[in-house]
Amino acid sequence: MIYLDNAATSFPKPAAVCDAMTAFALEIGANPGRSGHRLSVDAGRVIYETREAIASLFNMPDPLRVLFASNATGGLNQALLGFLRPGDRVVTSGMEHNSVMRPLRALESDGVRVCVVPSSPEGVLDPDDLRRMLREKTDMVVVNHGSNVNGCMQMIRELGAIARRAGALFLVDAAQTAGCVDIEMERDNIDLLAFTGHKALFGPQGTGGLVAGERVPLERMRPLIYGGTGSRSEFETQPEFPPDRYESGTPNTIGIAGLGGGVRFILETGMAEIRRHEDELAAALVDGLGSIDGVRLYAAPPERRLSTVSFTSEALSPSELGLCLDEEFDILCRVGLHCSPAAHASLGSFPEGTIRFSAGYFTTSDEISAAIDAVRALVRKGDRA
Amino acid sequence: MNEDQCVVLFHSTSLALRGEKLCREEKILVKLIPVPRRLSSDCGVCLRFPCVEEERLRSVFAAKALEFDDIVRL
Ligand SMILES: Cc1ncc(COP(=O)(O)O)c(C=O)c1O
Fold first, then answer.
1. I want to staple A72 with a disulfide (CB 3.0 to 4.6 A). Which of A182, A196, A332, B37 is the partner?
2. Which chain B residues have a beta carbon less than 8 Å from that of A229?
3. ipTM of the complex
């Protein structure tokens, strides 16, 4: 089996992730921060340590501003719905996932003004285009750091500088990049960073969240969920300090334990080593698929791409090709619109969608070669049919 | 040497754990303990430390803007 669907979720997971989850289940198990007993404190410590690991990964001084949620979608919704009010203006790119576009469209129907800066056909948001769009007073800029459709990465440091200069908060969707691309909150001018735990951070599904930089006025970010936190229980009002204000209800402690194992794996392996391997895979994918007659690649610029590629073939529809790869070659990938109609429209692949190969750190060069050979064989056969 | 012990109370366990970490970095001897019964606090844990370190502890927390509830002598 060849797994090329790492942009959906990474697989397999490092042993450290499974070990951390097993250790939690067997040795701790308790509800964190709800009681004073030893196991409850140990559970609280597991969460705190993961918070710290995430904070250090993004060079964020205060780990208590790492807010856990169920996934990137939860983090993005917290930032968007938490800050934006009727009359506010928000600017975004043409490469967004529905986890940004759907909350934005919902906010739009409540009177938030949503403006989209078109991206190039390769998926790049030009900083000058953003600058022009920010001549009008803008409250927030939200940008997908790395495309889940064609792997195109944005120049977030420049974009963030422009957004901040215009007085807007800069929200980055790092679902595809957190864990495999070097990101620093302040250096990269990021105010809010949404991350998911189960992709390049190698954690289990059901983990993720939002990192709120030091200059973010949290008093203006309303929680989306209110309830028990184990803190200040004498009051019926929500606590006002992070992370408790945004983390009501018993958390996914076992998942967060696993996420901690994932981040430790990354810190031990080294981001540079992960990037080096994935860049190699990206180059092999683009060169190999690009050399097949009748295959159209929706490639990102070489200097700014993840190991995720999208393509179509003249001979077979994406869904036919995907099914044949699965049934005849045991290759697992994802076809269609990838929850991102806007990005496909920008790249010129809407509404048919594409077939997407997404490699991860555990993908080997041999697997990439085998997948390319399989596409070549299927496209040739489809041509003759 | 003065061996009197104090505790610092927090609003939540995550704040207490952050406090523990910051103190350890500054080599202030702290221990995370259940909140003594006579002191009410909700999160259930607090940090015990030698009272002579109170000023240093306060300044470490102030420098990192870490909120705490109260400091009490045991
Ligand atoms: C760019 C992008 N943003 C957001 C998400 C949402 O992530 P999650 O499903 O973990 O909430 C994904 C992946 O599904 C994504 O690729």
1. A196
2. 12
3. 0.83
